[in-house]
């Protein structure tokens, strides 16, 4: 049974329009694009396609079916070209201001010195792009509404004719090129996980800063806007067609983006990587809600899962690095004494490190949920210090780790102090280093809060005890020279003082003090206040004792021959000489005397 006559006329008229735009048969059709012309011609062509598709339902004879099939194939080839042309015509590089994430960024993210970043910051205030905001997501209109309408008209007919795969492939290839272009603007390189892991860490640090900034833009702006465009064109045209086109466009770029963070998460662990890993963790954690919104379909589940797994691996890497850092501090092997007993480089490094950890208190507190695995009140390992965690039950696990690091640092320093041949210098070394630990804790409000006043008092007591130990080991013997014992002669008609013993006592004091002065002027106490406090403490014991001894026995020496050989220094000379102590440089071999 043939279709009614009007239908035959309509089919032939539609077929004529289709054939007129067959680019394989007409030079004119090859040079012109239907959708670049006037609206009337566009509507005529779309109606012709609709008519061919409708007539296929009624065609019963094989000739009619063949003619309809031939016409629809020509029409679909044409529409595919038109679809591609519209996409290309309206796929322009995303404006610089559109690639700027408006959410707050860590201060160091602004250190990115790429030309794009500087351009973004310059142009951001002039942005006039149209977008709707959902929390931190900004969906920018990537194409004008008339182009979207035309694309949707074409897509609807291609899908109805069974050309869904072709439609998706054309769309994905064009839009992926646009995404790749935006990636290049953002400084996102095509690097494999192996390529990333082979880069020097200094280079990676810069790339991590850039990646954090770029990832926020990609998820919240670029990917979200691509998803919106897919919905505008394909939503309702078949089952999850919009999602299929979205994944065709961004799956490769999304994998490329997240592979960078994955490579960092599984790279070799070392202490210097901790803080950039924490930056990555914070950035990805902050993006996770947006990732779940943008990639909310079943087909994009793999991207959501990848992001969650990377976040987990970054957390595990941070925990592992902290544990390895603790072990490295405990086992740090250097045994060469630092000159002058000053602050050891290890002390500076470790305290600066844990101060930085305290700056990441919120993140680290979430990641560190168990106390240190080593250190016990009942530890029998002589190479591990004792620590009673029961006394610190009120502290968080992170605080316990930081306290433990301070404990093992002191333990290591005590071992290094034994390398000094001079016991007094060993005490100066411990005083300097524990004092530095205390000052670093006091200087960081976050660190001080976590460590607590009790621990701080114990540390303060330790460096004060080291100062006391120094004074005992240095000055007990010197002050012993200024005692009266052994100078008096019993049963004699003389003055009762042995001049020979007194002369010997003055000579011994002079020699001992000159040696202390020569040696300890080269020792260094870098903290001005601590240096002055120790000098005052020494002076308060030494100067009165010397002046008193001099006052009691000066006349006995001056009444004899060559008194200047024995009374070499006044009380003021000794007081001035003490000011040379702990300056860290060699002074004159001779003590300055005011009489000179």
Automatic annotation (TrEMBL):
Taking every annotated instance into account, which residue ranges of this chain make up the domain Exocyst complex subunit Exo70 C-terminal? 210-579
Q: Quick one: signal sequence residues?
A: none
Keyword field contains Ubl conjugation: no
An example Pfam family from this entry, by short name, is: Exo70_N
- Residue ranges of the region described as Disordered: 95-130
Listed Basic and acidic residues bias regions: 115-124
Keywords for this protein: Exocytosis, Protein transport, Transport
Alphabetized PANTHER family for the sequence: EXOCYST COMPLEX PROTEIN EXO70, EXOCYST SUBUNIT EXO70 FAMILY PROTEIN
Q: Which family does it belong to?
A: Belongs to the EXO70 family.
Functional description taken from the UniProt entry: Component of the exocyst complex.
Protein name as catalogued? Exocyst subunit Exo70 family protein
Which species does this protein come from? Solanum tuberosum (Potato)
């Amino acid at each position: 049974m043939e279709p009614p006559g009007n239908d035959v006329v309509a089919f032939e008229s539609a077929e004529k329009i289709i054939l007129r735009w067959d680019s394989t048969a007409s030079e004119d059709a090859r040079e012109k694009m239907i959708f670049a012309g006037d609206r009337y011609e566009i509507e005529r062509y779309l109606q012709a396609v609709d008519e061919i598709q409708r007539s296929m339902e009624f065609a019963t004879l094989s000739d009619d079916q063949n003619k309809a099939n031939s016409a629809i194939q020509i029409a679909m080839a044409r529409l595919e070209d038109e679809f591609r042309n519209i996409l290309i015509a309206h796929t322009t590089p995303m404006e610089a201001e559109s690639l700027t994430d408006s959410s707050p960024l860590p201060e160091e993210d602004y250190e990115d010195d790429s030309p794009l970043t500087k351009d973004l910051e310059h142009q951001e205030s002039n942005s006039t792009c149209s977008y709707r905001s959902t929390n931190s997501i900004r969906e920018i209109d990537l194409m004008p509404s008339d182009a979207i309408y035309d694309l949707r008209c074409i897509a609807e007919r291609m899908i109805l004719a069974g050309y869904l795969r072709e439609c998706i492939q054309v769309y994905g290839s064009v839009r992926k090129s646009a995404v790749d272009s935006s990636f290049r603007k953002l400084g996102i390189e095509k690097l494999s996980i192996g390529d990333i892991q082979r880069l020097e860490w200094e280079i990676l640090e810069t790339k991590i800063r850039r990646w954090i900034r770029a990832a926020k833009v990609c998820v919240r702006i670029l990917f979200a806007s691509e998803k919106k465009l897919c919905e505008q064109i394909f939503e309702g045209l078949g089952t999850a067609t919009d999602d299929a086109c979205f994944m065709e466009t961004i799956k490769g770029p999304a994998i490329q983006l997240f592979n960078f963070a994955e490579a960092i998460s599984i790279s070799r662990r070392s202490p210097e990587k901790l803080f950039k890993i924490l930056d990555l963790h914070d950035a990805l954690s902050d993006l996770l809600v947006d990732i779940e919104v943008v990639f909310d379909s079943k087909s994009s589940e793999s991207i959501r899962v990848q992001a969650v797994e990377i976040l987990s691996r970054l957390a595990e890497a941070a925990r592992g690095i902290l544990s390895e850092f603790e072990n490295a501090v405990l086992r740090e092997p250097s045994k060469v004494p630092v000159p002058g007993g000053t602050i050891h480089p290890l002390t500076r490094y470790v305290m600066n490190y844990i101060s930085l950890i305290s700056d990441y208190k919120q993140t680290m507190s979430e990641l560190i949920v168990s106390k240190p695995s080593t250190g016990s009140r009942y530890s029998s390992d002589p190479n591990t210090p004792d620590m009673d965690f029961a006394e610190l039950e009120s502290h968080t696990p992170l605080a316990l780790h930081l306290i433990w690091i301070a404990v093992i640092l002191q333990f290591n320093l005590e071992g290094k102090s034994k390398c000094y041949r001079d016991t007094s210098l060993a005490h100066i070394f411990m005083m300097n280093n524990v004092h530095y630990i205390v000052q670093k804790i006091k200087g960081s409000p976050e660190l001080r809060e976590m460590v607590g006043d009790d621990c701080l008092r114990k540390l303060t007591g330790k460096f004060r005890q080291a100062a006391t130990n120094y004074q005992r080991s240095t000055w007990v013997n010197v002050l012993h020279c200024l005692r009266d014992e052994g100078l008096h002669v019993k049963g004699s008609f003389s003055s009762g003082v042995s001049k020979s013993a007194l002369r010997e006592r003055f000579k011994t004091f002079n020699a001992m003090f000159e040696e202390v002065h020569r040696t300890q002027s080269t020792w260094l106490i870098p903290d001005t206040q601590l240096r002055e406090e120790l000098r005052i403490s020494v002076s308060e014991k030494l100067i009165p004792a010397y002046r008193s001894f001099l006052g009691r026995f000066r006349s006995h020496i001056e009444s004899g021959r060559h008194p200047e050989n024995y009374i070499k220094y006044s009380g003021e000379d000794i007081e001035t000489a003490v000011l040379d102590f702990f300056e860290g440089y060699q002074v004159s071999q001779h003590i300055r005397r005011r009489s000179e």
